[in-house]
Predict the structure of 17.4 kDa class I heat shock protein-like.
Amino acid sequence: MAEQAPSDLPYEEFEPFCQWKRLEDCDVLQVHLAAFKKEELRVRIKNNSVLTVSGERLAAKDGKKIRFNREIKLPKDTFPGKICAKFDDSVLSITIPKKASPKTDASETKLTASIDNACPRNFISGVKSSLARLKFSKESAVAMAVAGLMLASGAYYLIENAAD
């Protein structure tokens, strides 16, 4: 039986285990690639917006080629030109630096007193802007609502029993 040419070998696609580490100044994508060598991997950036990680190797057992291709859309707050990759101990670590987020102006959230009635002029807008920045999951919001109801009913119970 004649041997197959390397280009005629069948491929087996697989999805490698990937793990994100979110840090303040960068994100790190760790791709676990047992049995791969550095020379069999490729990391590219397309159009400064898509990170492509791919690899291909020959399987030892059945002569098939094993390959993967993973594309990740980069967030807008990253530096595509400063992305670096390191392959060590079967783990490909790709560091994606973030652009510095603009600092919020402290005077933006300050409450100023009104001369007219000595109550904060920006009180309502200050509370509204602070609350607008908070993001809750549905579960957190429900848990907070339940806790608020329990607190209110407990206070009502104490007031009613104190009158007796």
User: Anything to note?
Assistant: The beta strands are 11-13, 17-22, 26-32, 41-46, 50-58, 65-73, 84-88, 91-97. The two ends are 99 Å apart (CA to CA). The chain has three helices and eight strands.
